[in-house]
Amino acid sequence: MSPLRSNSPLRTAVVGAGGIARTSHLPALRTLAAEGKAEVVAVVDVVEAAARTLADEESVPYASADLGAMLADVRPDLVVLCTPPAVHREQTVAALEAGAWVWCEKPPCPSLADYDAILAAEKGGGGRDPYASIVFQHRFGSGARHIGALLAEGAFGRPLVAHCQTTWYRDRAYYAVPWRGRWATEGGGPAMGHGIHQSDLLLDLMGPWTEVHGMAARLVHDVETEDVSTAQVRFASGAVATLVNSVLSPDEVSRIRIDCELATIELTHLYGYRDADWRITPAPGVAAETSAAWLDFGEEVPSSHLAQLRVLVDDIAQGRRHATSGEGGRRTLEFITALYRSAFTGTTVRPGDIGPGDPYYTALHGGAPDRDPASAQEEDRA
Q1: DSSP string, 247-300
Q2: Quick one: how far is CA 149 from the chain centroid?
């Protein structure tokens, strides 16, 4: 692939013609195409008819069921993966080896071993070399960027206590899709496939974590994975947090709350937020002019695929590492892996504890895909 020019549209291939491509990725790509920053040049799907239908709808010139053939024929600059997580490693590595950048839907891949194989395929590892990044769009709304900057500069004082909640509802029909709720194809349950967005945002706001102790259970659904999990977390700052991930909750909400010395910060939404979804409550004694300044979020950017894609396209053009690539994406997967290992072993897990040779490095179930999450600790102690 020839070097990119910062003023050239990013020639983009979309892999996977399902719902997430149609509702999130393609609308974002259309907006950037209208601005001359991107151009969709190919659609790939395992069902060739689905690829051709979507390509016709979007006036895209190339459609195929063969990813390898598309990479050879089209030589795209960017490959957008809208496929199930079990194939993310194989597809990402193929795209990287063909000289393309990758933007991959969450979950990034089923294991740390898979993620590290992707890192190894990033030949140079610098911003000018193709790399893979993950869809963690909640980091890129103006609300998260504003609050994150205030936290980083200490405007709220020390963070003390936090809560991260992804309590959603999924019925039996949702799990009738064959790849859902299966370790081999989805990688994990709500901690991996649903709550990972809020967990990623919490880590981005709170900084490095130092230990996690988790619990998991399968209470309702006939699946292999858990359908609910909780965790206690300690951060390098000394702050502590609780997490709840559920697909059993009829009253659905996504929420983060951070109590600091000088203020409480709350974000309440469902699948995406605007600035109005953030609330800042000052502590007694905080000057009115200070708390008023906290409310100046600047130009509003809702959290969305478009918000992240704008930054990614600019990062690629300028030769910068994107925030959710490399270690910036791995830290969230390591945290989720640690939650599962802790839940299944009854032990506290710290960063760096899970590496080659550890069964949780290659699978979130730790090598025992048939066990009941609720009884996993007893089995490990036996």
Answers
A1: SEEEEEEEEEEEEESSEEEEEEESS---GGGEEEEEPTT--HHHHHHHT---S-
A2: 21
Residues 6+ apart with CB under 8 A from 330: 112, 115, 116, 119
Longest dimension (CA), the chain: 65
Q: Between 26-34 and 48-58, two packed helices, what is the crossing angle to 10 degrees?
A: 30
**Pair 165, 244: CB distance under 8 Å:** yes
Separation CA 77–CA 102 (nearest Å) = 9
pTM for the whole structure: 0.94
Are 261 and 157 within 8 A, CB to CB?
yes
The residue ranges of the chain whose pLDDT is under 70 are 1-6, 125-127, 371-372, 374-382
Find out whether 40 and 309 touch, Cβ atoms under 8 Å. no
DSSP classification of residue 175: G
Tally: H helices and E strands in the chain: 15, 13
The span from the CA of 112 to the CA of 197, in Å, is 17
- 206-209, Cβ contacts within 8 angstroms, sequence gap of 24 or more: 206/151, 206/159, 206/162, 206/235, 206/237, 206/239, 206/241, 206/258, 207/235, 207/236, 207/237, 208/235, 208/236, 208/331, 208/351, 209/233, 209/234, 209/235, 209/236, 209/335, 209/351
Structure tokens belonging to residue 150: 């205030």
Q: Rounded distance, CA 32 to CA 20, Å? A: 17
**Could you tell me the two tokens for 239?**
């702050």
Helices 327-345, 196-206: crossing angle, 10 deg rounding: 110
Query: Residue 269 forms beta bridges with which residues?
Result: 254
